[in-house]
Write a structure and sequence with these properties.
The chain is an alpha+beta fold. It has one domain: 2-Layer Sandwich (Folate-binding fold). It has a four-stranded antiparallel sheet. Strand 1 and strand 2 form a beta hairpin. It is globular, with a radius of gyration of 15 Å.
């Protein structure tokens, strides 16, 4: 069972309390109607599929209901950190001790 820390509630709870909401830090186009079909397809569907630390968005579904971001290692399935939505990305070098 995965345990996930909600940065708003300050609680670490089972994964069943949360819902995965995709890749974090995806920026919506400023003028969506000006996007080509290919650009819109890329925005909606094309995401990173990294091996290792990955920035993700989660929602504390059965708690505060708020969205937050997390860095999860896709190899070990271990959460390296969670942080409030709108906060800058944490430095991977600090989290993992590896130089990227």
């Amino acid at each position: 069972m995965l345990l996930i820390h909600c940065p708003y509630c300050e609680e670490t709870l089972p994964e069943a309390e949360f819902a995965h909401a995709g890749q974090a830090h995806i920026i919506r186009p400023e003028n969506p109607s000006a996007q080509t079909d290919e650009e819109w397809e890329s925005f909606l569907f094309i995401r990173s599929n990294v091996k290792g630390p990955h920035y993700e968005r989660w929602r504390h579904l059965h708690g505060c209901g708020r969205f937050f971001n997390a860095v999860r290692d896709t190899v070990s399935d271990r959460f390296l950190t969670t942080y409030k939505a709108g906060a800058p990305r944490p430095d991977l070098e600090t989290l993992t001790g590896e130089v990227k």
